[in-house]
Amino acid sequence: MAQALANLKIVEIGELASAPYAAKLMADMGAEVIKIERPGAGDRARDRGPFPGGAAHREKSGLYLYLNTNKLGVTLDIARPEGFALLERLVADADVLVHNVAPPEMDRVGLNFDRLHQINPRLVMTSITPYGLTGPWRDLRAEELTVWSAGGVCVLNGAGLDHPELPPLKTFGNQSGFQGGVHGAVATMGAILAQVRDGEGQHVDVSCQEAIASQLELTFEYWPYMKVIANRLGKKPIQPLEAMECKDGWIYVCCVEEHQWKAFVGLMGNPAWAGEELFRDRLQRGENWEALKIFLEEWVSQQTVMDLYQKAQSRRIPFAPVSTMGDLLDSPHLKARGFFVEIAQPAAGTHLYPGAPLKFGATPWAIRRPAPTLGQHNAEIFGGRLGLDAARLAELTRAGVI
Question: What is the pTM of this model?
Answer without folding.
Answer: 0.89
